[in-house]
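Work package 3, deliverable 3.1, input record:
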Amino acid sequence: LTQLFRPLDMLGMVYRTIRQGLIDMAEMFRLLDTEVEVPDVPCAPALVIRKPSIVFDDVVFGYEPDRTILHGLSFEVPAGEAFAVVGPSGAGKSTLARLLFRFYDPQSGRILIDGQDISQVTQASLRASIGIVPQDSVLFNDTIGYNIGYGRDGATREEIEAAARGASLNSLVARLPKGFDTEVGERGLKLSGGEKQRVAIARTLVKNPPILVLDEATSALDTRTEQDILATLHRVAEHRTSLSIAHRLSTIADANRILVISEGRLVESGTHAQLLRRDGLYAEMWARQAAEADALNEAAE
Ligand code: ATP
């Protein structure tokens, strides 16, 4: 009988692996424009993380052979630090996140996590180590508990509840008629943008990855909600290595280091204060955003 069940076990494992892959794909929804399969090298070992540092070492990449997007990008995020990536639209910020998740391989150069070349380890182990909190989270037509538990196969109810508390979703869940068993999504309860993002944060907490990629919210949220969510994200990022892709500079002023990318090159890097003193591209972007915010405030008055 055991002989009979072994293939079924295998099938179950394959199914779970594929499903986890799909979840991650869904999470990468905004970051991912095209699906390109990158194969694992034969007999690839799993990524083993003790100190989750990230290194981009002279990375050259383009989606098409005749158009280079990243022109020899190099930087290091030491384990446990919170870095932010900023730069004009089209600079290559999302591309960098896609490469870290290995949806594509660089044309030359290497990407290392804890000293291991990510192209030489299994994708399953790589993707299990990185949590993505996208700005537009995909919700499934199922219960809110299921949507949170999707972060990791086999998550227990206790883990789901703890994650909901960590993402400050517990007061919302307490108000719902069926609690964690309330249906959400298109055919159930519609959640607001901020609530959906909290579900994504809770999913990430269930997954408990050592590395976080945060695709920070744009104007979809009101300022108060945004501040609340940011506070939650900062709490979740503690004790992990994080890379925030920032669209609005106001949200990343307290990052350990800010990487300024322009046309696929690292043009400046430093803390918010250092970059302002430098009076370069970052200072210019900061001044422009401040002027825009002032204009909006005046229009509102
Ligand atoms: P934004 O802040 O506007 O999101 P970004 O810095 O994240 O911009 P990327 O999305 O990384 O920019 O895009 C960098 C460049 O790569 C852009 O010129 C874009 O047109 C191009 N690009 C992005 N995805 C693809 C793709 N799948 N195929 C071809 N070119 C692409």
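The pocket of adenosine-5'-triphosphate is lined by residues 33-34, 63, 69, 87, 89-95, 247 (CB under 6 Å).
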